[in-house]
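User: Some background: our group keeps a shared notebook of sequences we're curious about, and every so often someone picks one and asks for a predicted structure to add to the entry. Today it's my turn. The entry only has the sequence so far, pasted here. Could you supply the structure so I can complete it?
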Amino acid sequence: MTETLPRKAPQTTVHSPAGLAAYFDTLPFLGRLTCQRQTLTAGEWTELELVYEVGAVGLADGAWLKLAFKFYSDWALFQTTDPTGANYVSAEYHAGPLVLGQSPATVQALKVRFDQKGHERPFQKAVIIDVVDGYLNPGDRIVIRLGDRRQGGAGTRVQTFVEKAFRFRLFIDPLGSSKFAEVPGDCKLEISAGRPHALQVMAPRLVGLGQSFDAIVRVDDIWGNTCRDRNLRGTLVITAPDATQRTEAIALAAQDWTFARISGLSFTETGEWKLEARLEDEAFVATALAYVQSEEGASRPLYADLHVHSDDTVGTNDATYNLTYGRDIAGLDVVGYTVNDFNITEANWDKAVEIIHGLNEPGRFVCYPGTEWCGNSAAGGDRNVVFLRDGKPRFPFDEKGQSLRSFEWNETTAGTIRPGVWPVDRLHTAYQDDPEGHLLIPHVGGRRCILDWNHPELERLIEIGSAWGQFHWLYTEALARGYRVGASAASDEHQGRCGGGVPATGTFGSRGGLTGVIADRFDRAGVGSALRARRTFATTGEHSFAVLSQGKHLMGEVFNAELNKPLSYRLLGHAGWEEVQLYDGDRLVWSRDLHAEAGFSERSVRIRFGGARIKDRYRAAYWSGDVAVTGAALLDVYGVGFDHPEQSVWRTGLGKLGFRTATHGDIDGIELKLSDLRDAHITIDAKLHGYSKIGDPLQPPPHVHAPEARLGVSGKDLIAKGSVTLDLPGVELRLIVERVTDQPLPRDLAGEISLNKLELDPGREHPLFLTARQRDQSRIWTSPLFLKP
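Assistant: Of course. Here's the predicted structure to add to the notebook entry:
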């Protein structure tokens, strides 16, 4: 039906709504965004309301908005399909006041969706709001509710790590042309640590007899954030190898981070010393243990994290915060500050280098500047560049003024992307004149390294573990290609918790790693020389220790071996070593099962989930499902290797369990204690899915090659075989049911391996390295011995 307007006489005077232009002048042209909260607690559940007041520009029919935040945040994924469920996000229109003669807006609805790649880096995660059938007036409001609880939902789970200035940034397309403008004034929130949950003790795993060292005690919340501004008292109980004890009061800082550094510890008795930290008057805060082995003539290993980001590019909090966190909270000896080479401005780089040089303190804390060459995998993939020398690094330009970036792009860059050194062989060319002053480390992050490229003088280490996952497969592939690379691991920390880090719940869902360094001197030159000599081991974030040698030859060396001399190894851990393996490149040649050696239990078994779906960015395998036990009573159950509170196992009925976890190349498990194993039958039904990069998070994409896994095992089979494995399509993706021991496993493990029994080909070089796993599924790798029989 067509509306017919009454005829009016022609108007000869100017017409406009009375006072509307003056009202427009009172509004910001692009509008304003406000939030009812200024502070949040990491990991809390809440409803957060943000209000956008439309500016003088208005919003045209077909316009859209993006409420964006940074991609590294692990804020729970928003959904728009179940108003009664958790993490429901809504947007609601409220008309503003009209002046005399002004027509009301005609918008019919707002349509909401969520897209993890909805905007430009770093503000990639976006709640997208489409204006449907009509326009909005200046002064109208859009109310955005994150975790809308009005229909019974649980709210939304906040990002699990602390951040001084978390930002929501609003982008609007006012003309409906898909050309976005940034609304001035981000909504800034301070995300703080929660209440005390557990203590942590950081100490070197091995020290020389009488050698002085420091230990750090800190108080963390349930998500692994170090608490702040807590007035707490604690004690440190030190137990000697002969079981005698002494107790020292811990002076925890009452302001800023809640931690204490206990300086000048030394032990004059050989053996394993136990450090146990406790809080007074805090019964529900878990105590913490650390073990220190004191030995005559031992050299204290240094613990390094060579891959730490700050908010100069894509990290959380500033460079000073991240570096001092590494030194004071993570108990690191060495930190490599890392910037995304394409993203850092020259001014910020110069400022960061000045901070790094200021914090570098030989004998206490070695700090290196570094960059991350961010070439796509097709051009070689990610390589870290660690600048080992003092002085100004050769970046972002060389002596001729030529760019040494992969390309140049950041939030303020105008125009097209400008290429720099591309592909990776040109990065090699840029630094190959001074290999002793540089260390390049290929790694797997978002853009995984491709091993078609290698520079033997620059690329002396390879990163086989980080917050992105564990990459044993990368190590073995590099060695199988004949590359002489040693073991390193790092946090690749984007969330302000370097030094092994604490897993988040998103793409950075694995425990970060550490590189153990056996150095002759504790300064830049000494540590750099040890790194380039490959005198290293890699851990999954723990201060554990490993060494592999033959006679005077230490891991990392290239030499001709004597077949009648055995290999020697030593492992020091905290949770008990359960498996040790020796690899010749990509070939397993020797192993020990410490569960079998200790004697399998007649009642205890373990289910293990491990591996990743793919090798590239969104690699995680998300496991969920059920376990059913029949033929025996299920007496007890607990999770092993779970990384955060959202990975768990629970009882659902008589002999029945539900579980949910994720593996990024790492291993998680469930230990079961049964009334009797022989007549038991265990069935695991699991669903596997990938990360919800796009689409409805309530309907995550199944792992297309193995959307479901089912494994049934009888107790008699386990008694006969020890374990049953179901290999799945993916990257070391598997489901295992296995027997375990009830006996304690050794924290200190040493032994010899006969070279003669390995049947090594005398005509070629063999890269022999050791990898071992502890009962809590933490892991360690040594650098290889590159030996020729």
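Suggested note for the entry: The radius of gyration is 29 Å. The longest strand covers residues 600-612.
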